[in-house]
Hints:
A hairpin with a 6-residue loop joins strand 2 and strand 3 (about 65-75). The protein has one domain. Helix 3 runs parallel beside helix 6. By secondary structure, it is an alpha+beta fold. A seven-stranded antiparallel sheet has the order 2-3-1-9-4-7-6, with helices on both faces. The chain has a two-stranded antiparallel sheet with strand order 5-8. It has helices spanning about 1-15, 35-45, 105-120, 130, 135-140, 185-195, 215-220, and strands at about 20-30, 50-60, 65-75, 125, 150, 160-165, 175, 195, 200-210. It is built from seven helices and nine strands; from the N terminus they run H-E-H-E-E-H-E-H-H-E-E-E-H-E-E-H.
Amino acid sequence: MRYHAAEASLKKYADNYFRYHIAARMSAHPCPVNEHEVKFIYDNLQKIAPIEYFRISKGSMGNPYGTQLKVVFSSGVVQLNPYEDMSDIPLPDEFASVPSTDSQYAEVLQFQQSQICHKLHSICAIPRHSYIQSLSGYFKGTATLPYKYQLIRNQSQFNNFSVSHSSIEQPFCIISAGEKTKLDPKNCEAFKASIRHNFAKFHKLQFAIDVGSDSVRQLTS
């Protein structure tokens, strides 16, 4: 009886703790070829939101890494966003380490969760570490790397989309669009699926994102 009560209590705690987490399934094309490329992706994702779970699929043909990644982000800690001037919402220091489901935090956490999801979907690509490691100007901050791509046929609806250059301060290439275009997650992912790019220079990153404890449980099980 005590075992079942403890199990139920633990499940309730986990449900509350992961309620505002983000469960992301990612694809990186081409796949990373070494641990330096994996670390470069991980380190820059970590700048957007704290990562609590990170797994990459196994590769083939002698490559230890595949194209599929699973990442769980926490929205319970405010991170400085390096790619967009968004106002921070300060949280009490104790909240950084103690999960809380008090109603006073719900609106803050939902907002942060929404902003993190939006930012992830807007990411189009990141340079391959194996390419930029020889570009001294990139690491010195004196040069940027343009993301060159081509739309596949019959995708004229994306003609007013653009992608930012990559720099050492802002490694991710971010999607933007004209004022009259709605830049929502569906459009961002459809745009990424409709382009071809230089595999030697960039990983194209695509996301399928869910939120909440059930999504985290399914992703990590």
